[in-house]
């Protein structure tokens, strides 16, 4: 069993209309290539590296114009598309959610509010964003179970292990991984570790551009990079294979050999 995967890497603009057009262009290209699962980066409504508070002002509800137009555009496509957008919350201080959404044929089929906020390396995502409190449900795409993670979640192995024990065949990670000393190395090591320790696929899609590294990639269950992008905008397409998962778990039965139970959230 195989799944054709697209990595839609791009630099997020300041205006949602421009980002909508980029998404639609990539969706058209991916659909023409028979892609089953297309993944965009994190926070694709709007980005301004000189104005981190833009995520609050640019946030839209999931029935707002950005998602409404994107859903309408997807109606004739069987392809599943994942991304994250900032969504207004009911918090009195005006903070927003960082929500990963999965869409298919004009509908939102799953939502996940980012659990781990990026309060590290002199940045503080929690200034504008509220963390979620729920482990995401798996998304089924053509016989593959997909686990949803977002950016900084990559540094916390508990979530990936929980998703795989829940039945995930592949982990999807939209990201806006910030450049910096050793950061590209962290991206490579952590993404590989999450795939290898869980004997699953890791599909990590990073935003490109002036601030972020790009370098989107697919890593197979034995830690082999099977597809990778550069630091520039591009659509990369590859295929993942369930037989590879079966093989990896036969020769490396780490899940079967584990001595710990399934991780749970502190709030569960």
TrEMBL record:
Tree of life domain: Bacteria
InterPro entries listed in its UniProt record: C-N_Hydrolase, C-N_Hydrolase_sf, De_GSH_amidase, UPF0012_CS
Matching Pfam families: CN_hydrolase
Domain CN hydrolase: 3-242
Transmembrane segments: none
Family stated for the protein in its record: Belongs to the carbon-nitrogen hydrolase superfamily. NIT1/NIT2 family.
Protein name: Deaminated glutathione amidase
